[in-house]
Design brief:
The structure is a homodimer. By secondary structure, chain A is α/β, with parallel strands linked by helices. Chain A folds into two domains: about 45 residues, Orthogonal Bundle (Helicase, Ruva Protein, domain 3); about 150 residues, 3-Layer(aba) Sandwich (Dna Topoisomerase Vi A Subunit, Chain: A, domain 2). In chain A, about 40% of the residues lie in helices and about 10% in strands. In chain A, the strands form two sheets. Chain A has a four-stranded parallel beta sheet. In chain A, helix 1 packs across helix 2. At the A-B interface, helix 1, helix 2, helix 3, strand 2 and helix 5 of A face helix 1, helix 2, helix 3, strand 2 and helix 5 of B.
Chain lengths: ~210, ~210
């Protein structure tokens, strides 16, 4: 490739190819696509990259990456102060916002994962427990990933909360976990056995009047 | 999203999402991945974008995008001057280089495609015919895509060459097309019927001594 393609094209294909999920062929195709874009559009790209980290801070309340501290969500008094969704990362907040969750958030910054050398002390768990001290929050929704590490993280946090309640540092509150089951629009036969058995476990009354 | 994510993050996700094959979710994931990269790495990205079009020119011989005119391949006298592979774009040159083609190239800049308003006059066909005037080239390999438009382009060029030979503006030469057939490593049962019938048409003697 070094003989065929100009250095500037190689340079862009190289950085693009360093992105997760983008292999060398895709990087090449994207680079040639970009060659066809106007110069001012390329400048827009350049600017977006160089300014990415500017004006960013971490919200001291919920630990999300934001432009202000506290962030817009924590500053929003119209939200339900009693419900707190504990998530792993900012994109989870985005997802729950789209699902119209109206409570507040706490962003852990990851999940407990021994293989990746991430322990509880590497996540914003102590900050979470401090927030529960104010006793404003009545329900903690453990919205970590429905995966092995996500479950381990949820379990750890639940135990921490239980201990704090026992010690009396926080008042009793409700700890919940998002439902496991069949995704909407799915097909029963394609569901994996674990998901299907959890869907069976979590079955609820069908008729409205029984609820 | 405008309430949740900082402007700089939105800006980068937006430009990334404008790339072909990259949807909003992937754009978000890539942006958050990039948030974890060092500032100097982000600057490398910014620089690659802003410098992409610098120092680029078109080789007046083969029409490839290059840093010099003529390009490194056209300047390479060790290559076989008698074989010319006609391709649609620079990435095809890259592909043939990997396949160890040792002749020279001509880059058309696309394919004849009425739907996309690309006619022969929009491609580097007249420049190709001019190159053939020198009579150095003994074989033209029509290496356009094995698709409808690629075939139409190859057909058009072949007819132009035939006319030029009849008129006497160029000497008789060989015009060839890359073989159609089963890709190496494939599985017969998964081959589509067109490819399979072309593979049958193009069958060759198996035993070495018959060649």
């Amino acid at each position: 490739m070094s003989k065929v393609l100009p250095k500037s094209i190689q340079a862009l294909a190289e950085v693009l190819g360093s992105l997760p999920g983008i292999g060398p062929k895709t990087a090449n195709r994207l680079t040639f696509y970009l060659l066809g874009r106007e110069s001012h559009e390329l400048q827009r790209f350049a600017q977006a990259f160089s300014e990415l980290r500017e004006n960013l801070t971490t919200c001291s309340v919920c630990q999300i990456i934001a432009e202000s501290d506290p962030c817009p969500i924590c500053s929003d008094s119209t939200r339900d102060q009693q419900k707190l969704a504990v998530v792993e990362e900012a994109l989870d907040v985005l997802a729950l916002e789209k699902a119209r969750f109206n409570g507040r958030y706490h962003v852990l910054g990851g999940q407990i994962s021994p293989i990746n050398h991430v322990g509880p002390e590497d996540l914003a768990i102590s900050q979470l427990l401090e927030r529960l001290n104010s006793n404003e929050i009545k329900e903690v929704i453990l919205a970590t990933d429905p995966s092995l590490e996500g479950e381990a993280t949820a379990l750890y946090i639940d135990e921490q909360i239980k201990s704090a309640v026992e010690l009396g540092t926080i008042k009793e509150l409700s700890v919940t976990r998002l439902a496991r089951g069949l995704p909407v629009g799915g097909d029963l036969e394609y569901a994996d056995e674990l998901t299907l058995s959890r869907a069976l476990e979590g079955r609820r009354s069908y008729s409205q009047k029984d609820q």
